């Protein structure tokens, strides 16, 4: 074996044999670079208008209708359908030329994000200030929610059953809300020797909502009463209406460009609205496909996909069964089982990008990096892949071929080094049907913070990847 080779031969060997990850900026054309920035502008608008799962559903619905999608109930003369589930989940489908039973191409993202939820009996006053009690939703670092402007988004069902939508804190003239933090001068003794998990208490995440009493008589509820009076005059609601309400506290403000070169985006809720947006745009861009393409936008991923709007619910089956009905197949039960079994799917969710200041929590050879394209995550889970849906070599091979053939810049990423922690996605809840599924999405820095960071280049590659996946009609036999 020849071991003494010159530099050129070394270069040649490296090129032929080694995998060298590509930075998107190094490899895309000027034309594509323009597309990167154009898509990012659309994405920022989506982030601004889809800060809750309900808002995301109505935004997705608007775009779908504008692009010719019809309610699945009205099946005549259409091949593009949508279905909304309890205002918090939505699915879109483009019917392909091949029968559904040959399998469909599914991309499933989630549209809920970590936040503070208002409790059912929230309003109180303390030291002449009025507050709302909260219970946090999803995995947050509690200190992120202190001393920052917050907005209120919610749905309230009144006594007579009529709904009210509220949104306060997102426009420039709106007031905002906040959770007060302890001043450093007095925090030392109380907090500095404690463990982080004990320093910030969930029960202290109370949202400041006012400080003016209703009158000068010293009643012990006059601050609270003033808030109730305002809410009643403005929205016609009474205190009991909080019990039938879902009010979410989210960071106030819009998505922003980060960096002098404007190459990054900073915003709340990019987990997982970046993948939801890419899935949406890619299905909207389809005209005719061989396989049927379906995009799901689920709720409740951040609390384990539980409940009737999470990926564990039967919404997926319901929608696919309705598609089977709509395409005129008899014996829906059998067809549904076969369709699901023969399908291929992407669990479209974000991965944590290599953190420059905490590189030790990652295993660098297998960590996703900002700017290196869409991230394929073969498995998730923690402590020995527990709780993961581990995609097969055969299926990863197919995904890789689709991406390579369509010039998608991709990387692989594992969430943290072995036994460092971990996390899950909805992949395993779709895997139960026997379909192929793999996690594939965008890498995010500051994940689960109120100001998550993504790369515009990665967003573009995520979109390209999803579009190529939807358009793919691969007939190769992966298994015996
Ligand atoms: Mn996610
Ligand atoms: Mn998450």
What is this entry, summarized?
30% of the residues lie in helices and 22% in strands. It is an alpha/beta fold and 480 residues long.
How would you describe the overall organization of this protein?
- The protein has two domains: 19-113 and 268-471, 3-Layer(aba) Sandwich (Aminopeptidase), CATH 3.40.630; 115-251, Aminopeptidase i, Domain 2, CATH 2.30.250.
- The chain has helices at 7-17, 24-27, 30-49, 53-66, 184-191, 196-199, 222-235, 270-284, 315-326, 332-341, 393-405, 427-431, 456-471, and strands spanning 70-71, 80-85, 89-94, 105-110, 115-126, 129-137, 150-157, 163-168, 207-210, 245-251, 256-258, 264-267, 293-298, 344-347, 351-352, 374-377, 410-412, 436-441, 443-444, 452-455.
- It has 480 residues and is an alpha/beta fold.
- Strand 7 and strand 8 form a beta hairpin.
- 30% of the residues lie in helices and 22% in strands.
- The relative contact order is 0.17.
- The chain is globular and about 90 Å long.
- The model has no long low-confidence stretch (mean pLDDT 95).
- Helix 8 packs across helix 13 (456-471).
- The longest helix has 20 residues, at 30-49.
- It contains 13 helices and 20 strands.
- The strands form four sheets. A nine-stranded mixed beta sheet has the order 1-2-3-13-4-14-18-16-17, with helices on both faces. A six-stranded antiparallel beta sheet has the order 8-7-10-5-6-9. A three-stranded antiparallel beta sheet has the order 11-12-20.
- The structure holds manganese (II) ion (MN) (2 copies).
- The site of one manganese (II) ion has 3 residues, from loops.
- One manganese (II) ion (MN) is lined by residues 110, 271-272, 301, 349-350.
